[in-house]
Amino acid sequence: MRQLLPTPLDAVDPLTLYPFDHRPRPASRPWLMANMVASVDGAIAIDGVSGGLGGDGDSMAFRAIRASCDWIVAAAGTIRVERYRIPRATEETAAVRVATGRSEAPRLAVVSASVDLDPELPLFADQRYGEARPLVITGANPPADRVEALAGRAEWHHTDTERPTAEGVLAALGERGADVVLAEGGPTFNGQLLDSGLIDEICLSISPHLVGGSSSRIVNGSAATIPADLRLDRLLEHDDALFARYIRT
Ligand SMILES: NC(=O)c1ccc[n+]([C@@H]2O[C@H](COP(=O)([O-])OP(=O)(O)OC[C@H]3O[C@@H](n4cnc5c(N)ncnc54)[C@H](OP(=O)(O)O)[C@@H]3O)[C@@H](O)[C@H]2O)c1
Question: Which residue ranges have their beta carbon within 6 Å of ligand 1?
Answer without folding.
Answer: 36-37, 44-45, 48-50, 53, 75-78, 81-82, 111-114, 116, 163-164, 184-189, 192, 216, 220
